[in-house]
Amino acid sequence: MKNKIIAGNWKMNKNRIEAEQLVTELIPLVKDTKNTVIICVPFTDLCTAVKLTKGTNIHVGAQNCHWKESGAFTGEIAPSMLTELGVEYVVIGHSERRTYFGETDQTVLLRTKAALAAGLKPIVCIGETLDERNSGNMENVLRRQVVEGFKDITAEELANVVVAYEPVWAIGTGVTATDEQANDAIKFVRSVFAEKYGKKAANALYIQYGGSMNDGNAKGLLAMSDIDGGLIGGASLVATKFATIVHSK
Hints:
The chain is of the alpha/beta class. The chain has helices at residues 16-30, 46-53, 79-85, 95-100, 105-117, 130-134, 138-149, 155-158, 179-197, 199-204, 218-222, 239-246; strands at 5-9, 36-40, 58-62, 89-92, 121-126, 162-165, 206-209, 229-232.
């Protein structure tokens, strides 16, 4: 079995002082894990996080990047601005970006390509809404997000990508897909990647679950056959809770 990739998505939480406290508390709690640990922090916390985690087993990620290296894109961040700071990962296409800020499969593809070109490892998010699941369109939606969102991604590039399946109806709601629901959805997503890239590449691809995973349900979810880790929201803001997830198997 693969080691897991556990990424904390802090979203719009923690100022610089709070970030320093959280990272400092987290470092000794996760130092012995064989899993990959990532914290995806607000832009204003990146310098602090990179500095504090230097020499540790914690990797730092951002929560978005633009597809251009410079230009008149007020409020955006270029991929090279992240790598220059020492950032390694970046979340792309989170459902909140899709819902509130007009992110599409096409812009997800552009951002992913730019991130890869800059040497970042994208954590690309996909997932269906409750209406899409209840209407029987879950597989169609997930297939479209993979086909369109990875249209120009090569097999070589895919090796540096992490995918996060996050059912929109389970994000920030406290509602979590059952272990079996999450695993079945991820198994389907993997099959779509297998159609495009072959079974070997699809099996090597890390696909996380990202819908309200917490310290209470992580063990069951991470024990499933196709779930390769978690993209953690609220629970990543508490060092002890996040560490419990990191050590779950």
